[in-house]
Design brief:
The protein is an alpha/beta fold. The chain has 5 helices and 13 strands.
């Protein structure tokens, strides 16, 4: 099952983001992400959050349509987006796309980006999308297969310490079992040479950001053990 979570951040490229939606997706509005759904004429399968950003009339409208609503206390430990991720994972989603996860608040944008690195979600093919830009996380033992176009920008940023045993194919600056040190910028602004690239990681975690020159093929992460 694939889930689309629409969060309450900025939607700067709606025409591109809408191309992700497929009829069989589980569509989830994370609190104020409902406003994006309504603006697009979409009916979510689930509204989740403390609902502090949802107007009473919109809430009443969803209730009259029989749409599932999960209301959480305002004083909670998780953001609305994290609640949504936990819920779609509980329902069996294997792939999750987050739209509207970035915005004007740096704290929210950073926290949302780092959710991709949460080990509880390592078995999800999880990505955060903003028009032509996408972020995924590569965990130890995983291989990411990136699809795009020659000239697309790809950056690898180590999280929570160094990332080591990195093997890449199809990138201008190749890594052959090398390491990227935490809080350094060596992995920023690599370039795809082909329509496909591959990144294999032995230890650590890598945030992988892709900037497509045009909205095209999308990155996927193959789950599994470390290559032998």
């Amino acid at each position: 099952m694939r889930a689309i979570i629409i969060s309450n951040g900025m939607i700067r490229h709606p025409e591109q983001d809408l191309t992700w939606l497929q009829p069989r997706d589980l569509l989830v509005a994370a609190d104020g992400g409902l406003q994006h759904c309504l603006a697009w004429g979409l009916r979510p399968d689930l509204l989740i959050g403390d609902l502090d950003s949802v107007a009473d009339e919109d809430l009443s409208g969803l209730q009259s349509q029989g749409i599932e609503i999960q209301r959480h206390p305002a004083r909670k430990d998780e953001t609305d987006l994290e609640l949504a991720l936990c819920e779609v994972q509980r329902r069996g989603a294997r792939e999750v796309i987050i739209l509207g996860g970035l915005g004007g608040r740096w704290d929210q944008s950073l926290a949302n980006s780092l959710l991709l690195a949460n080990p509880d979600f390592r078995d999800l093919a999880l990505r955060l999308v903003d028009g032509p830009q996408e972020i995924i996380c590569i965990h130890a033992g995983q291989t990411a297969h990136i699809e795009g176009s020659p000239g697309d920008t790809l950056s690898l940023i180590p999280l929570a310490g160094n990332a080591s045993g990195i093997h890449t194919q199809g990138l201008e600056y190749r890594l052959a079992g090398e390491a990227l040190e935490f809080a350094t910028t060596r992995g920023v602004s690599n370039v795809l040479l082909e329509e496909q690239a591959q990144i294999r990681l032995q230890a650590g975690r890598l945030l992988c950001a892709i900037i497509h020159q045009t909205h095209g093929p999308n990155p996927t992460t193959e789950k599994g053990g470390t290559d032998q």
